[in-house]
Design brief:
By secondary structure, the protein is α+β, with helices and mostly antiparallel strands. About 30% of the residues lie in helices and about 20% in strands. Strand 13 (about 310) and strand 14 (about 320) form a beta hairpin. Helix 4 (about 170-185) runs antiparallel to helix 6 and helix 4 (about 170-185) packs across helix 7 (about 215-225). The termini are far apart. InterPro entries: OTU1_Ubl, OTU_dom, Papain-like_cys_pep_sf, Ubiquitin-like_domsf, Znf-C2H2_OTU1-like_C, Znf_C2H2_type. It catalyses: Thiol-dependent hydrolysis of ester, thioester, amide, peptide and isopeptide bonds formed by the C-terminal Gly of ubiquitin (a 76-residue protein attached to proteins as an intracellular targeting signal).
């Protein structure tokens, strides 16, 4: 007597389902944690845990003869046509096929009113192969470090990228800072700025002047979006505009440099696919960005600015720590520094 085919539709249904996944190596994985009312996305998440194949790369075939399941993430297993005891054939599709199709990625949060109508792909941000980039995989794609040029305008380029999807608006952003400081003299006193107000405005207007917390607070207020700056070494997250807005963006601070964070459907996708603005209620994003920073820390891609040693590239003067570097820059106008052991 032969056993009943696993694809038979005559078997009784039960509350808890047993589903078997056959991967590309013909290995069978069994799922017994879902019922008929579980979502199709939950099934894919379980498959990802068992096989390591991320959601955007999964193609699932069901029934007999096997057919590609077109169910949506929110559909129940019952409405998707799955029955207790079914075998699901898993195929891992290529990154090219994902781009041609519709990636399983949440729709980007709407951009603020100030954002450019036609996002531009940055021409100056560094480009690396998928093997070199620092990223963290999630069910919706990869949170990835988008590196900015090391030209003393990295903060402005990072902000330009996460808000306007352009790294070429540096001087415009510097002018926003100047205008904001001049319009709010009570908030930005000489004491807060560390120097006379007009002197600070003249200094920050220069293309080789660094930006920091003052500038981030101004951009948060100007663009009506929370800006989170994640420190690589400590893991601390400084949140500018916290509790005031519905969306947030992320920059990574590695001691003397700022980079941007984006969500991409696949690692080899063009930067035009990036999402950089997220709903404030999405704490998965916060965890993923922290994981990117932690990965950078493990790779020692940061500089501890309290005691690092620098040399002025213009006069050769030796310096210790960010404080001495800033003082030297303010007193001499020199802005080219190199770290050395």
């Amino acid at each position: 007597m032969t056993s009943t085919q696993s694809f038979s539709t005559s078997r009784p249904q039960t509350k808890t389902m047993e589903l078997r996944i056959r991967d590309k190596n013909s290995k069978i994985h069994t799922i017994t944690t879902l019922n008929e009312q579980a979502s199709f996305k939950e099934l894919k998440e379980e498959i990802s845990k068992l096989t390591g194949v991320l959601l955007p790369y999964q193609e699932l075939k069901i029934g007999y003869p096997p057919r590609i399941c077109k169910a949506k993430n929110e559909d129940t297993l019952a409405s998707a046509g799955l029955l207790n005891g079914d075998i699901i054939i898993l195929t891992e599709i290529s990154s090219t096929e994902v781009v041609k199709g519709t990636p399983t990625i949440s729709a980007p949060a709407p951009a603020p009113a100030h954002a450019l109508h036609t996002p531009t792909v940055p021409s100056t941000a560094s480009k690396s192969s998928s093997k070199d980039v620092i990223s963290i995989p999630t069910e919706n794609g990869f949170f990835i470090l988008r590196e900015m040029p090391d030209d003393n305008s990295c903060l402005f380029r990072a902000i330009g990228y996460v808000l306007d999807r352009s790294t070429d608006t540096v001087q415009h952003l510097r002018q926003i800072v100047i205008d904001h400081i001049r319009k709010n003299p009570d908030h930005f006193s000489d004491v807060v700025l560390g120097k006379p107000r007009e002197e600070y405005c003249s200094w920050i207007a220069r293309k080789d002047s660094w930006g920091g917390a003052i500038e981030l607070s101004i951009f948060a207020s100007h663009y009506k979006v929370e800006i989170c700056s994640v420190d690589v070494r400590s893991g601390r997250i400084d949140r500018f505009g916290q509790g005031q807005y519905d969306q947030y963006v992320f920059v990574i601070y590695s001691g003397i440099h700022y980079d941007a964070i984006a969500l991409t459907p696949i690692l080899d996708a063009g930067q035009e696919y990036d999402q950089t603005i997220f709903n404030i209620t999405d704490d998965v994003t916060l965890k993923a960005v922290s994981a990117v920073a932690n990965k950078m820390k493990q790779l020692h891609k940061y500089t501890y600015t309290a005691d690092f040693t620098l040399k002025c590239g213009q006069c050769g003067h030796g310096l210790k720590g960010e404080k001495e570097a800033v003082q030297h820059a303010q007193s001499t106008g020199h802005t080219k520094f190199v770290e050395y052991e």
